[in-house]
Amino acid sequence: MPARYTLDTNLYVDAARDPAARASLAGFSEAFAPWLFLSGIVALELRAGVQPPDQRRLEREVLDPFVRRGRVLAPAYAQWQEAGDVMRQLASAHGPPVAEMSKSLVNDIHLALTCRAHGVRLVTRNIRDFARIAPLVPGFAFDLPWPTA
Q1: What is the reported pLDDT for 99?
Q2: Domain spanning 5-139: which CATH class is it, in words?
Q3: Which of 73, 80, 89, 98 has the highest count of CB atoms within 10 angstroms of its CB?
Q4: Following CA atoms 38, 42, 48, 49 in sequence, which dihedral angle do they give, to the nearest 10 degrees?
Q5: How many C-beta atoms surround the C-beta of residue 127 within 10 A?
């Protein structure tokens, strides 16, 4: 059985803006549909960034299929607690202070912890943040687009 995957927000945004990225996303989604999940964190970021004319399309084409199939992953309270520890460790090692961390980095920490908790690999092009997060979240795994097995 192939690994289970979830996709980072940046891949959906790329697909919305670029036909080649859209084709790559469609090909991966078709090949890995039985093993593909949506992170609630990614849903939050997509909904926050969508313009009103495109909101219904986002719901219909991206979010609703995962919701209907019960394939949405969300952080549990334990992941919220651990996220605070990871944020503190990142701030100690790399700065900036926790209060100044970007929302994107905080969301990435939650995404990594949720992936680990559900045994799901993250597919992303954001190697910079996840390379810093991964050592603090043992068992978390991520791949650059697009894994083949």
Answers
A1: 67
A2: alpha beta
A3: 73
A4: -100
A5: 11
The DSSP line for 16-58 is: HH-HHHHHHHHHHHHHHGGGEEEEHHHHHHHHHH--HHHHHHH
CA nearest to 131, candidates 4, 99, 140: 140
- For the residues 136-144, what does the mean pLDDT come to? 97
Looking at residue 119, the DSSP 8-state letter turns out to be T
- pLDDT per residue over 39-81, tens digit each? 999 999 999 999 888 999 999 999 999 999 999 999 999 999 9
Tokens of 51: 């313009």
CA distance 54 to 129: 28
Phi, psi of 97 (to 5 degrees): -55, 155
Whether the per-residue pLDDT at 118 is higher than 70: the answer is yes
Cβ–Cβ contacts within 10 Å for residue 118, how many?
Answer: 16
Q: What is the per-residue DSSP string for 58-101?
A: HIIIIIHHHHHTT-EE---HHHHHHHHHHHHHHHHHH-S-GGG-
